[in-house]
Design a protein that fits this description.
alpha+beta, 4-stranded antiparallel β-sheet, single chain, 5-stranded antiparallel β-sheet, Mlu1-box Binding Protein, DNA-binding Domain
Length: 411
């Protein structure tokens, strides 16, 4: 039986006669008690007469101290504990328990699912398993996998609003899983955030055609022909098959999303005249995880680089006071370099960066050196000022005459 999650607390379920029961400590953690086991035990002891055998019982469970009797609570028992609790999350916890109970009740009334289910089709979406259970021409989807793909905490958030004909319970391996049909999946996508549902929808459309149905693509009126659709899907498949398996789902989503973003429609609705452009787009997409050809070295001569000394002086009019413009010799002082607002070195590196060259290393090295030089100059000026003051004080003390009365005994 799958674990339940309340907020950030995962509650391990104890399966008792096919129904979920919870331990004392986990209920206390969910209710945010500082000492969860002690707090829940006190709550129960104070109100034990209100609990029935259907709400709580003692069972033998292995512990660190060996096999011991441990008290557990059914979901109705956990709800009653939350009624007695006075923590801030108790009210929310009670609503959550009722939602889980409603979901379990709906599952009990749901159809049994595929009588003889086929082996699930195991796919991977964003590094997580995504299982599909075929039943003839009908496809069922594992609700927990859909919930994880949509970043939802529990499958019951998807199944609680579905009619019984759109969900079912099915024994797959040694687990009894909740399944939803295609219409139930569409409702889940509709209620999820677009940022989560749209990539999953695009990936699923491609996955169902590529991995599941195997049916020949159907041409739509005004859209790509069946052959063109097949060629586009084959290109996507060829692009992603060289990638690690865990990255293929994300890569396929990127390809189909790029087509939709470029043409404003699904790939089937692309106009036949734009087929070549669509193929070119898919072929040029950079996919995470694939090996790229080394980039050709950039040719420096293509840029218009012009940084003469005159520019440097013209853009720092308050500096270079000691330089003779009629002389071929450049005369600069330390202050000219440190106090100049315009740096031709930074401007050159900035222009290279804008052209696509990765020069952030030397750029920030130059900036840090200029900043360091300014701080050192200020420190030296500060030290020089203090030294001058100290020397002045010394000269003043040296010239001052001191009189100490009674220091000597008269003869």
């Amino acid at each position: 039986m799958q674990a339940l999650t309340f907020r950030n607390t995962q509650l391990d379920v104890i399966d008792r006669n096919g129904r979920p029961w919870l331990g004392v400590t986990q209920i206390g953690l969910a209710l945010e008690y500082a000492n969860p086991e002690t707090a829940i035990t006190k709550l129960y002891n104070r109100n034990a007469d209100e609990f029935t055998s259907e709400m709580t019982t003692l069972i033998d469970l292995p512990t660190n101290g060996g096999m011991q009797q441990v008290r557990i609570f059914s979901l109705r028992g956990a709800h009653l504990l939350a009624m007695f609790a006075r923590t801030e999350v108790a009210k929310e916890f009670r609503r959550w328990v009722l939602d889980v109970l409603d979901d379990l009740s709906a599952q009990d009334s749901a159809p049994a699912g595929p009588a003889t289910p086929a082996e699930p089709i195991h796919l991977t979406y964003n590094d997580r398993p995504f299982r599909i259970v075929p039943e003839g021409a009908v496809l069922w989807f594992v609700a927990a996998d859909v919930a994880h793909a949509l970043d939802m905490r529990d499958a019951y958030r998807i199944t609680r609003h579905l009619r019984s004909e759109h969900k079912a319970l099915c024994q797959i391996g040694n687990k009894r899983l909740c399944l939803i049909d295609r219409q139930g999946l569409e409702l889940a996508l509709h209620h999820a955030s677009p940022a989560r549902s749209e990539p999953l929808r695009l990936w699923l459309d491609a996955a169902l055609e590529q991995f599941v149905t195997g049916a020949a693509p159907r041409a739509l009126l005004g859209g790509l022909s069946g052959e063109q659709q097949g060629a586009l899907k084959a290109l996507v498949a060829a692009r992603i098959e060289t990638l690690p398996e865990v990255q293929r789902g994300k890569a396929a989503t990127r390809c189909w999303s790029a087509l939709k973003a470029r043409f404003g429609c699904g790939y089937k609705e692309i106009e036949p005249a734009q087929f070549t452009e669509a193929v070119s787009l898919v072929a040029r997409i950079v996919l995470e995880g694939e090996l790229l050809e080394p980039e050709a070295p950039k040719v420096l001569g293509r840029l218009e680089l012009d940084f003469p000394i005159e520019d440097w002086k013209a853009k720092n009019p308050h500096q270079f006071r000691h330089d003779n413009p009629n002389s071929t010799e450049l005369t600069i002082t330390t202050g000219d370099v440190l106090m100049s607002e315009y740096s031709p070195g930074e401007a050159l590196l900035g222009q290279l960066a804008e052209a696509g060259y990765r020069v952030d290393g030397p750029l920030y090295e130059l900036r840090s050196l200029r900043s360091l030089a300014r701080r050192l100059d200020m420190t030296m000026r500060f030290m020089a000022g203090h030294m001058r003051q100290a020397m002045d004080n010394f000269e003043h003390d040296h010239r001052r005459v001191e009189h100490f009365k009674g220091a000597k005994t008269p003869r």
